[in-house]
Amino acid sequence: MSEDDKLARIVEARLKLRERFQRDMQATPSLADDAPMGSGQTNRHGMPQLPPDQYETKKWPVLDLGIKPEVPRATWKLAVDGAVAAPRTLAWADLEAFEQVEDVSDFHCVTKWSRMNMRWRGVRLADVLAAAEPRPTARFVMCHAYDGYTTNLPLAEALKPDVLLVHTFDGAPLEIEHGGPCRVITPQLYAWKGAKWVSRLEVLEDDRLGFWEERGYSNTAYPWRNDRYS
Ligand SMILES: Nc1nc2c(c(=O)[nH]1)N[C@H]1C(S)=C(S)[C@@H](COP(=O)(O)O)O[C@H]1N2
Ligand SMILES: [Mo]
Prior knowledge:
Layout: H1 3-27, E1 55-56, E2 77-82, E3 88-91, H2 92-97, E4 101-108, E5 113-124, H3 125-131, E6 140-145, E7 150-154, H4 155-158, E8 164-169, E9 172-173, E10 183-185, E11 198-204, H5 211-214
Parallel strand pairs: 1-5, 2-11
Antiparallel strand pairs: 2-3, 4-5, 5-8, 6-7, 6-11, 8-9, 8-10
The structure holds the ligand Nc1nc2c(c(=O)[nH]1)N[C@H]1C(S)=C(S)[C@@H](COP(=O)(O)O)O[C@H]1N2 and molybdenum atom.
The ligand Nc1nc2c(c(=O)[nH]1)N[C@H]1C(S)=C(S)[C@@H](COP(=O)(O)O)O[C@H]1N2 binds next to loops.
């Protein structure tokens, strides 16, 4: 099968899930909730273990577009540009020079699995963005990845302290299949908002939709509101 066919199949399968979800929502309108969650200090907002309609898995499924780019640390680069005063391209040593933080957070996939209490180590996305000096008019960031994936975040979400550029999971280098050497995690949003193999942080003044957001995924993506699709 060609790469294009493979991608088309992945997209088709995921959009079928979206259709099914929307049918379910129409059948049980009480599940639908338009109000955005807003900010919260912790990943769970003092809520029960699992967001609505999620089940827990102890495994870590792999979800992506079927391309697994190999980007060794030695040649890895991350561009930070767009609506910033000091655009830059980070090499691995630059990433290591930022404060290294550890966090434990949950990981919620829109396809309904959640993996709880994942132990991460990395750098705050907020610190990396701050170093590039976002302009006062900056309000969003588009995260680009080495596989061609994109996903957009409002800065209000991207700057939360548990949004990390992670390079280490459970004490070991992040595996390629999970986005190694470096990916974004967005514990308070569905996991598609966290780009694996992140290659570029493009700061924006106006919002623009990423890969799944363009295809009918929610632009806000709040797990605790069952906010999966638009
Ligand atoms: N670069 C890239 N990042 C991506 C994706 C992708 O296809 N490409 N898929 C997203 C989706 S839908 C999910 S659920 C998580 C899955 O991460 P995992 O494969 O480590 O479980 O990565 C997100 N980040
Ligand atoms: Mo996902």
